[in-house]
């Protein structure tokens, strides 16, 4: 699963490399609007006649991509690093499948680490009951719940959470790296 995602991550990094240089921030409205200059992007890459890429850039998914990834100050991720710093590496690996596979596995490992930041926390599996276990007499019935004590615990937890500072997410915003200038790569 992660390796397939890593392959698509590389593909989109190659496809959209240099997209940040074609973003325009328009400040006419109360809130800035981000516009992607498609003609400049296709022209700088020498792909004006490329029907596939033109259709991708005209799609709704790409419009969402631009609105989500367009702001110059936001949380950066693995895709931003690939587009900004790994362009030359991806290009050099095109003719070398072992290096490409190694890079895909590195990306897959990073994707796994991003989704599982605490690998030491393992979920304990509950064993399946043995056959006939429901017929055993020695199993004690579940005790009755004391409703008053439950209410006390709820109130106690609520009072503690009201005094605590709000939980914040660990994502740190930064200036998104622009990557190499558009003229350094031309696709064939």
Automatic annotation (TrEMBL):
PROSITE patterns: DENN (PS50211)
GO terms for biological process, alphabetical: regulation of Rab protein signal transduction
Domain UDENN: 1-76
One Gene Ontology CC term in the entry: cytoplasmic vesicle
Domain of life: Eukaryota
GO molecular-function terms, A-Z: guanyl-nucleotide exchange factor activity
Protein's name according to its UniProt entry: MTMRD protein
Organism: Oxylabes madagascariensis (white-throated Oxylabes)
Underlying gene: Sbf2_0
């Amino acid at each position: 699963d992660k390796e397939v995602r890593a392959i698509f991550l590389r593909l989109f990094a190659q496809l959209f490399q240099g997209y940040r240089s074609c973003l325009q921030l328009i400040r006419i409205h109360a809130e800035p609007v981000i516009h992607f200059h498609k003609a400049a992007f296709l022209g700088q890459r020498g792909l004006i006649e490329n029907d596939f890429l033109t259709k991708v850039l005209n799609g709704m998914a790409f419009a969402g991509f631009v609105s989500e990834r367009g702001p110059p100050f936001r949380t950066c991720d693995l895709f931003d690093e690939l587009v900004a710093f790994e362009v030359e590496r991806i290009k050099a690996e095109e003719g070398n499948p072992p290096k490409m596979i190694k890079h895909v596995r590195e990306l897959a490992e990073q994707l796994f680490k991003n989704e599982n930041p605490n690998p030491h926390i393992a979920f304990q599996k509950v064993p399946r009951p043995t056959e006939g276990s429901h017929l055993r007499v020695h199993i004690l019935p579940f005790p009755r719940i004391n409703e008053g004590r439950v209410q006390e615990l709820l109130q106690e937890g609520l009072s503690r959470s009201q005094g605590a500072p709000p939980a914040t997410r660990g994502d740190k915003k930064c200036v998104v790296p622009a990557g190499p200038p558009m003229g350094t790569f031309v696709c064939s």
